[in-house]
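ugh ok fine here u go
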Amino acid sequence: MRPALYVRPLTEAERTSLEAGLRSRDAFVLRRCQILLASARRERVPQIAGALGCDEQTVRNVLHAFATKGLGVWARQSTRPRTLHRAIEAPEAEQLKSLLHQRPRRFGKPTSLWTLDLLAEVSFAEGITPYPVTGETIRMSLKRLGIRWQRAKHWITSPDPEYARKKEAVTA
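structure:
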């Protein structure tokens, strides 16, 4: 059986700060104060979690954080991931780059212009990415290769000197 986990004995200043935190408008601060004061009253982790409607691990995390940081547990930590895993690594990104030099029609697509979403779809179908990714993932991978992605534009041009007249006749 796991030994009971309690907060260390509180100083008078800490107890005053925690009791003042019970009147906080911030639910994060309020919950942490409730956990620490309940633990100071020698309530066990499962009892505190049940009374406050939170997970037991949440209570343990607060108690451990208080042991290391003191009243610094009130400060919110960043929710940003510490490590970022790239969906497309360098070799796959090079394959993606070579895919850009081919026409989408070669892959059975009804267009001649690449879009990021279309590129994501084809990269999954061709096995470049192990799972479907978003157009934004493709854009970031291309950015790491130094390729700036711009929206596809439809340009109809021809070297024919009579092109403007012929186009006018067809579109009019």
